[in-house]
Design a protein that fits this description.
The protein is an alpha/beta fold. Helices cover 17% and strands 25% of the residues. Helix 2 runs parallel beside helix 6, helix 3 packs parallel to helix 4 and helix 6 crosses helix 7.
Length: 457
């Protein structure tokens, strides 16, 4: 990914917030690169800069509500080292942006703590926030907080998840058995926002991430060895996230796998880009990174959990792996067309729309039409023989497809047709209010043409 070559241009000077389990504040490979709040006097018990947090020298602990965001887990320390471990000191390795400063935001990664941490990072000068966490619960509040951070110049980088799922699809994967889905989609990575980059994991061979030890033990790469989530519309690119050596508490180092390790690689690259181009806003930084990826052939196939086999196709928006050097001169202009498989990219339908859906590169098509309150409507999806297509109707105010299934989130689903393979989908409903409704066609791991008809009944 040409990081050493990028360092010949800049080692970086941006502030990158690591919203995670905290950081080992005394680690010799991290301590020199911790962000220092210029308006705060350490250990005097006062809120010198008036930001509402006393003695917040390096950040804040939102889990314990104190100024010492010390890591007790290891995850955050590992992530921080990938972002900005010190270079050239003879210890461990170097972070992707070794001249950047790490703002430490410790949280239980619950909604309240995450919202407060995002607000803190935004108000206190972070240009990038790394979020190496997520689950399958859509939150309107979290989406709004990330969007507001973007309006104030902040880019968010998020891990795509490790459930071997496709974030363009609705897959209920409850890994820990607590009743709350971890996937799919995975949030915050799957929010369709212009200031967010979602990152899959790749390995040293530029393949989508699988655990090397598992493959060695079995003599081949089996589905159970693979882990990274993908999504042509919902995941932007891949970055190294397998066998990653980085900092760990007590001054040690560990090798870990995961999209949690891939996201901070991209956050570090974003820090480099912001350092070279301080005039760029978050959308321009994102564009520069996405427009400059390498596209190795190995990223044209993925182990599919639903099919338990290696599938060819296009599995991220760019089909690429991040390149730090090229990102520094990447075009800041939007060169990738907005997907028509999202609410924001929905196309207008009058009465009939004919199209084609094709998993994985175009699994969803979304249309929009203004309906009148109290009127009844009939929506028919003509499905080809032996094809499994589903139909969903979303009401006005919907922000994302699939948001309905999250606990505590008002359901925006008006009607759905999810019949068996090869059967047409028909729904009839009465519009609850006047406004723009969305008609969503989904290809369940298949492809083919369709005709969608919307008419008054």
């Amino acid at each position: 990914m040409d990081a050493p070559e990028a360092w010949d241009v800049t080692a970086g000077n941006a502030v990158i917030a690591v919203l995670d389990t905290g950081v080992d504040l005394s680690h010799p490979d991290l301590a020199p690169n911790l962000w220092v709040n210029p308006g705060e006097v350490p250990d005097n018990g006062l809120d010198d800069d008036g930001n509402g947090y006393a003695d917040d020298v390096h950040g804040w602990d939102f889990a314990e509500d104190d100024p010492v965001p010390q890591d007790r887990n290891g995850h955050g320390t590992h992530v921080a080292g990938i972002v900005a471990a010190v270079a050239g000191n003879g210890l461990g390795g170097a972070g992707v942006c070794p001249g950047c400063r790490i703002m430490v935001l410790r949280s239980k990664l619950d909604l309240a703590g995450t919202l407060e941490a995002i607000a803190y990072a935004t108000r206190n000068g972070a240009g990038v926030i790394n979020m190496s966490f997520g689950d399958g619960s859509f939150s309107r509040l979290l989406r709004r907080a990330i969007a507001r951070a973007g309006a104030r110049g902040v880019l968010v980088v998020a891990a795509a998840g490790n459930q071997l799922g496709d974030n363009d699809m609705r897959l209920v994967i409850d890994e820990d058995g607590d009743g709350a889905p971890e996937c799919c989609p995975t949030y915050p990575a799957s929010y369709d926002l212009p200031n967010l980059i979602a990152v899959a994991a790749s390995n040293h061979a530029d393949r989508y991430g699988y655990r090397t030890g598992c493959a060695i033990r079995n003599g081949e790469v089996l589905p159970r060895c693979a882990f990274t989530n993908v999504g042509h519309d919902s995941v932007d690119l891949a970055a190294p996230g397998v066998d990653v050596l980085s900092t760990f508490p007590s001054g040690t180092y560990e090798v870990l796998d995961g999209t949690s390790m891939a996201a901070p690689v991209v956050a570090g690259v974003a820090g480099l880009v912001r350092s070279v181009h301080p005039e760029y806003g978050p959308v321009q930084v994102r564009n520069a990174i996405l427009n400059s990826v390498d596209r190795p052939d190995g990223l044209r196939s993925w182990w599919n959990a639903a099919r338990t086999e290696l599938m060819p196709g296009s599995f991220t928006l760019t089909d690429g792996r991040v390149n730090a050097l090229r990102a520094l001169s990447g075009s800041p202009d939007a060169r990738i067309a907005r997907s028509d498989g999202t609410i924001a990219g929905a196309r207008r339908i009058r009465r009939v729309a004919e199209g084609r859906v094709a998993w994985p590169e175009d699994a969803n098509d979304v249309y929009r039409k203004r309906l009148i309150q109290g009127r009844r409507y009939r929506v028919l999806l003509d499905v080809p023989r032996r094809k499994d297509f589903d139909l969903f109707v979303w009401e006005p105010g919907t922000l994302e497809i699939w948001q309905c299934w999250s606990p505590g989130t008002p359901c925006k689903l008006v009607a759905s047709g999810v019949r068996d393979r090869g059967e047409d989908e028909l729904v009839v409903f009465r519009a609850r209010r006047t406004g723009t409704y969305y008609f969503h066609v989904n290809a369940w791991f298949t492809r083919g043409p369709y005709a969608l008809r919307v008419a008054r009944r």
